[in-house]
Amino acid sequence: MSDAxxxxxxxxxxxxxxxxxxxxLLTCTTMIESEIRRRLRAAFDTTLxxxxxxxxxxxxxxxxxxxxxxxxxxxxxxxxxxxxxxxEAEGLVERNPSxxxxxxxxxxxxxVGRTVFAEQSAAHEGWxxxxxxxxSPGERSxxxxxxxRTKTSARNATETAA
Amino acid sequence: MSDAxxxxxxxxxxxxxxxxxxxxLLTCTTMIESEIRRRLRAAFDTTLxxxxxxxxxxxxxxxxxxxxxxxxxxxxxxxxxxxxxxxEAEGLVERNPSxxxxxxxxxxxxxVGRTVFAEQSAAHEGWxxxxxxxxSPGERSxxxxxxxRTKTSARNATETAA
DNA sequence: GCCGAATGCTTGAAGCCTAAAACATTATCT
DNA sequence: AGATAATGTTTTAGGCTTCAAGCATTCGGC
Lengths: 162, 162
Fold this sequence. Notes:
disordered N terminus; MarR family transcriptional regulator (chains A, B); Tscrpt_reg_MarR-type_CS (chains A, B)
């Protein structure tokens, strides 16, 4: 029996379950994420990637290099070139050559950037509380634990495959 | 007390919890989604939006209009113009004027599209089973239920706000 | 000290995505 | 029937995203 035949024979039985779970997970995240994007645009005329970058820098007052940001934000390197250029043009972020490595550029919040982010961050936290407010504390902690398990499962699967 | 002051006074206490939950949800979904995108590219040289559009059409053999697709896929209308044009150029999809509404265009799979999607779909199902395979059946069904609750919570929050 | 490998970043091409404006057609209300 | 509103699609401008190619610098081994 060929590999393709094996796949087709085995698949219908056990895998629909996981697929439904994945689709639901994706729908949930997409719904919340779209709403957050919409509110960020409406309230602050900004975007989620901009907000995420500011959030990282806010947590690291000494600055981060583009490479460090790229890894933390799980986006490609080239992506950050444009994103940081836009934020610099808006005056929220400043770019300086790394003192220890002449290849690297460090990014940090300007004082304007810090102020702007503080407002956005407070609103964001409220929005999330609003969107997830329909869950009881017990449900939230159960979900939190199950997602930790999910993360582990996914990480193991991607690593053994690679 | 002003609204802003109320927000700031209440926020630090109760909302960190929901924020951590949201970040974990987002991380999980992003990890799995990136891996699926990577595998779709490696195995079939295609993308997730293309795959999603084919999946919708596969479920509706009589075809769907761009507007229906837009709603089901939760993406903007204008987005589908380009996406469907690319899939048509690749010969996977055919566009026909709606017989009942001269404004509308219906999309359906070509026979090539149906064959291509069947392969991709089988592989996709296996990948998801792989990525979520670390969860027990009990964990999966508990997660499934909690995500339903999450979806309801988010939907209520977006509707009452709008 | 020198050379090749690894690392940090930028650029370019292509695709995905949105919001808003424009256009065509259909539905509704008198 | 005629005006108005609603719906279906496309276009436009701008931003986000990736991959791959290229350049600059640093690191490791010799």
